[in-house]
Amino acid sequence: MANHSQFGFQDASSPIMEELMQFHDHALMVALAICSLVLYLLALMLTEKLSSSTVDAQEIELVWTILPAAVLIMLALPSLRILYMMDEVNEPDLTLKAIGHQWYWSYEYTDFKDLTFDSYMIPTSDLPLGHFRLLEVDHRVIVPTESKVRVIVTADDVLHSWAVPSLGVKTDAIPGRLNQTSFLASRPGVYYGQCSEICGANHSFMPIVVESTPLANFENWSSLLPS
Amino acid sequence: MAGEGDSEPGKSFKLLGFLDVKNVPCARESVLYGSLGSLVMGLGHFLATSRVRRSYDVAVGGFICTMLGYWFYCRFNLAQQRIRQRMLQEGMKNRILYEGSYLDPEKEQIGSERSDS
């Protein structure tokens, strides 16, 4: 989860999120280069005498055509690479349905057994000591570690959005539509997210908690859960 | 001793308020090499031509080109290193998993060496 006053990304827990963080660093470096140039040009304009003696602007025209093209190429190529990586079609090990309601999430594991449960936020008054306020839920989403998980997201009433920042996942939940996303949790852990589309009074109080656990523990959990 | 000579974890130094040069890999070196390149190229141009304004332009251009050039080089090497780390991790995991079993490649190798001798 994010610490208080955290401004940057949370630690990546999936390969896609690692790639996204690297691309973000690259984009910021390009932004630094552009800002340096702009600051220099600004300083130049402020110190230069105003004159209208320019008759031929071939060189500057060439520069301000080629430079933006180069910047776009530097940003577009890695961006498209990650975009296509995110859309790769692969055989998921597990399919999970996430359905948004006002104001809770319900999950369905229907691959091998009809497992369905609702996931409500634990109110602050009932929160055990040391747990995270407005982030904990009564039933977490359990997924096996290092397994490709496909999540099909939809909603029952209004727009919601299923988001887990450390896994690099955010997918809109739209009534009447099935949106698909996938992730791979690289390591065991508990990953928190919150509804990311305004959906009414308790929009801020329907969190998502994904718990990644080794496969043996996942099988144990799924066998214990009543269908 | 832990912490000697190391900066505190989580502290950041953001250039122009957004680029964290302490925590982003390759960022610090890129900016430093860029600054060095800028100094060398700007000063060199001035010494060669004695044109102040153009030397400033060359210095800024040198900063941007050197910084981005080293950035691409460093990030490429970092990506290669990450791939090697992943392969190593996978290899170590597989070695532990398959050691002694019929899938152990070392067992096959020893077997073929014995049959050769």
Automatic annotation (TrEMBL), chain A:
Alphabetically ordered keywords of this record: Copper, Electron transport, Magnesium, Membrane, Metal-binding, Mitochondrion, Mitochondrion inner membrane, Respiratory chain, Translocase, Transmembrane, Transmembrane helix, Transport
Reactions it catalyzes: 4 Fe(II)-[cytochrome c] + O2 + 8 H(+)(in) = 4 Fe(III)-[cytochrome c] + 2 H2O + 4 H(+)(out)
- Superkingdom, according to UniProt? Eukaryota
Could you give one GO CC term from the UniProt record? respiratory chain complex IV
Q: Which SUPFAM superfamilies match?
A: Cupredoxins, Cytochrome c oxidase subunit II-like, transmembrane region
Membrane topology summary: Multi-pass membrane protein
Q: Where in the cell is it found?
A: Mitochondrion inner membrane
Its annotated function is as follows:
Component of the cytochrome c oxidase, the last enzyme in the mitochondrial electron transport chain which drives oxidative phosphorylation. The respiratory chain contains 3 multisubunit complexes succinate dehydrogenase (complex II, CII), ubiquinol-cytochrome c oxidoreductase (cytochrome b-c1 complex, complex III, CIII) and cytochrome c oxidase (complex IV, CIV), that cooperate to transfer electrons derived from NADH and succinate to molecular oxygen, creating an electrochemical gradient over the inner membrane that drives transmembrane transport and the ATP synthase.
The Cytochrome oxidase subunit II copper A binding domain, residue ranges: 91-224
- Point out the signal peptide segment: none
**Upper lineage:** Eukaryota, Metazoa, Chordata, Craniata, Vertebrata
Q: Report if keyword Electron transport is assigned.
A: yes
Q: What is its main location?
A: mitochondrion
Instruction: Provide an example Pfam family for this protein.
Output: COX2_TM
Bilayer-crossing residues are 27-46, 66-84
Write out the similarity annotation: Belongs to the cytochrome c oxidase subunit 2 family.
- Gene Ontology MF, one: cytochrome-c oxidase activity
User: Cross-referenced InterPro entries, in alphabetical order?
Assistant: CcO_II, CcO_II-like_C, CcO_II_C, Copper_CuA, Cupredoxin, Cyt_c_oxidase_su2, Cyt_c_oxidase_su2_TM_dom, Cyt_c_oxidase_su2_TM_sf
This chain's protein is named Cytochrome c oxidase subunit 2
